[in-house]
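In response to reviewer comment 3 from the previous cycle, which asked for concrete evidence that the modeling workflow produces usable outputs, we include below a single protein chain processed end to end. The sequence was submitted unchanged, and the resulting structure tokens are shown without manual editing.
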Amino acid sequence: MKKHAVKFVHHAKHIAHHLRNHRAITRRNVLLFFVGLNIFFLFVIMMNTMSFPNTMVGGVNLGLKTKTYIRNYLAGVYGTPFKLTINSHTYDLNYEHIGVYMNPDGAINEIFAPNTKPFPENVGAFVASVFQKRPVKIPLSFSQEFYEYVTKINIAGSNHNDIVYVNQENKQVTLFTPEQRYRINTSLFQTELTKRFGRHEDALLVPLVEVPNTLEKDVEAANTKLLAAYKDPLTVIVGINSANRFLTLSPDDLRRYTVASISANSHDVQLNVNSKAFAPDLSRALAVYTASFNPTLASEKIGDEMKNALLTRMTGSPMDSIKVGIDNGPNTDGEIATKYIEIDISQQKLFTFNQGKLVKTYRVSTGKDYPTPVGRFAILNKAGLGYSSIYNVWMPYWMAFSFSDVLHAYFGIHELPYYYTGGTKIQRPRDFIGAPNTGGCVALDIGDAKEVYQFSDIGTPVVIYQ
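The workflow returned the following structure tokens.
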């Protein structure tokens, strides 16, 4: 009996020990589960908010960085001067000085491209990045300013003449002395600028080649030029109200928006813009970003630069982008009076100035049936709601600035007018703003007129430019 009791006690101790070990294993498994779950969530967050490890830009590791950090870093690199060595002469320049522009959004998309891959490809790409570096080339746009800079160097290298010119960006005089007949290898130069983005420790040696001296038959030359002109898309960098907007025109777009011809005598290729096709498409494209532009002026300015870009391609330079500013801004700089109003008919814009500073810019509509007068005037009278007996319309926030002896009526600034028919209020269309559509007055959009009305006083100067 005693022997059986000893065995029972022994078995009981064994069972208790086993239960303690089981509970310990269970707690460890639960702990490992939660640790793994936290690691998983951290991994998911990192996959969506940070760059993959070993993401290299210009030799700098930008791995495991946020988009905000990388955007600020790229902006700093873009604005940092670097050295260019051209035929033993070294210059301190930056990208914008030579007409090279960076699209920040495009750069971010390139860097974070692996993050956007579908599962599980993104996981595989992340694991691979831990063990292997991924060089990223920042997309750069080379504008007409870049090719003008290259052309200056090529002229100097082929003419054997010293050149003294003023850098229009920093207004400094530069002396360039060529030592041999050469021209820049433009495509290789672009490749080096892109590849070395972010490296400033040593000078970039601009690749040069000997100046070719070849002749081609007229027809072959003309076809070669046309192929070069329409081969690639063209990026239009549109400067609107201090911001750059990017539009891309395909080769088919370029063909549709231009008319090519050839001279009967010299067989030179000539280009002109097809305004009927180009202007409406451009207006619709820019309207996505802002309505603050004059469609006619915008299509003329961008069309001229587009034509120049294609002509430049015909010379052998593979131009891929142009930079055009379509907002010319005010004609004055605050010097007319302490407080005044400026109106520019060509831009269809009104500017308010106070204490020598531009307060705000508004889009307007000026005279179509009768021209808006040009010159210097002043606010003569104001009324919260005016009425035109000529057009039988009501004009909110009326501000008269001139009286016409011919029309026996005042010209004024006011909000888009309206009238009643059958008891229904009919508002003038808001898309009238931005183009001449009035009887000579200056019409502002709904809401804008109230601001100008509150800004102005009787006697406030009004200066109007054609």
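The longest helix spans residues 2-49. We consider this sufficient to address the reviewer's concern, and the full set will be provided in the supplementary archive.
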